[in-house]
Design brief:
single chain; about 375 residues; alpha+beta; Transposase Inhibitor Protein From Tn5, Chain A, domain 1; ten-stranded mixed beta sheet; 9 helices; globular
């Protein structure tokens, strides 16, 4: 009796094991062994004098199937994943062992003579995370909630952090002892700023001195959200994935991460060439000051144009263009931009009814999740 061949849907879902696939040289690959070389590759492509690196840690999900914990390098408005862990969606348990494992895997590639900050949103803050980042020689740059307490050196009682930023347009920075609980207490620097137009203030806890850090650096963390969008509907189409095994998704992410790194490096290289041409032949430089084009010009002379195409999209288009004349595929570079010194004001101010509607939607979603979990527990008991 002949053994029936698996259907195409089985191959597409990635549910086959290595011994079931065709080919005598197929082997299982541990993706985590590639994390340190991937970060080392980022450092080798570095072409900037400043040895400053921003890492962001965050989680993303694919529907109700997968949750991915990722550590990404923030570069030129893009995010390059260098370590990740794929988990089933809504899996119960702590993420701490997985985050510790990711830092353990990339720790050997972290350059000790660089200034590296690790950014994370307030939903991920924990005392163990603070200690973990410091243990690997990096600087934590973590956002915390406004409803926390802190005290200045020499004070006995803890008070709410909100006393330093009572209204929009206020800011404060200084060394404090944060959190009233003895086991969660941390000595560090608080960077607080409430930009008009935001719902609440940015409160950043770091170990850097107040003179060495700026709260506006936290704006870099939003680039990892753009990186998740690139992986899904924005560029690489990961949202079409039908894989049913976490190990297969991790291998797919390795291919996507390599493509992201290559395209970002090519985009940075193309931007560098474009800027060099711009400095030598700036448009409108030869026009008189009374010319109508100079009068209507909003960008001052000497300031480079605004980036209208992301580096990863520019690099991908460059690769596609090189395939038609069959030219050799080039290697790119990575250039670090100056970290932001000011916060960007929201273009559209949120209306009160919009804020209330958003809170109502969150509350409804929270109740739906509770009801779904209650039904699952009830089914498990019976």
């Amino acid at each position: 009796m002949k053994r029936s061949k698996p259907s195409f849907s089985v191959y597409a879902s990635g549910s086959l094991h290595a011994e079931q696939k065709s080919g005598k040289k197929r082997r299982e690959m541990e993706v985590s062994t590639c994390f340190a070389p991937l970060l080392a590759w980022v450092c080798r492509l570095w072409q900037s004098e400043k040895r400053q690196l921003a890492l962001a840690m965050d989680a993303t999900s694919l529907g109700n199937r997968w949750t991915i914990l990722a550590v990404s390098v923030l570069m030129s408005g893009c995010a390059i994943p260098v370590a990740w862990k794929v988990l089933p969606a809504e899996q119960a348990g702590s993420w701490r062992p997985y985050w510790e494992g990711l830092f353990q895997q990339i720790g050997t590639a972290i350059p000790l003579d660089w200034e590296i900050i690790v950014l994370a949103d307030r939903g991920l803050y924990a005392r163990w995370l603070w200690d973990l980042i410091l243990a690997w020689g990096c600087h934590p740059f973590l956002r915390i909630n406004l409803g926390s307490k802190a005290r200045l050196p020499g004070e006995e009682d803890f008070d709410w952090i909100s006393r330093w930023v009572p209204m929009p347009g206020t800011s404060w920075k200084g060394q404090v002892e944060c959190f009233a609980g003895k086991h969660s207490r941390v000595k560090g620097t608080l960077l607080i700023h409430w930009e008009p137009g935001y719902e609440s203030a940015w409160i950043i806890l770091t170990d850097l001195e107040p003179e060495q850090a700026q709260v506006s650096w936290y704006g870099l963390r939003t680039w990892i959200e753009g990186g998740f969008k690139d992986f899904k509907r924005g560029l690489w189409g990961w949202h079409h994935c039908k894989m049913q095994r976490a190990r297969c998704v991790e291998r797919l992410w390795l291919a996507l991460a390599l493509a992201q790194l290559w395209c970002v490096s090519l985009g940075c290289r193309a931007e560098a060439q474009q800027e060099e041409m711009f400095w030598h032949h700036e448009p409108g430089q030869g026009l008189s000051e009374k010319h109508i084009a100079r009068k209507r010009r909003k960008r001052p002379l000497g300031q480079r144009p605004v980036r209208r195409l992301s580096c990863v999209a520019r690099g991908r288009l460059l690769l596609l263009a090189l395939q038609f004349p069959s030219e050799p595929l080039p290697l790119g570079i990575l250039r670090a931009e100056a970290w932001p010194e000011t916060m960007t004001t929201p273009q559209k101010q949120p209306q009160p009814f919009a804020l209330n509607k958003k809170k109502t939607q969150k509350e409804k979603e929270r109740r739906r999740k509770q009801q779904r979990r209650a039904r699952e527990r009830s089914r498990a008991r019976h």
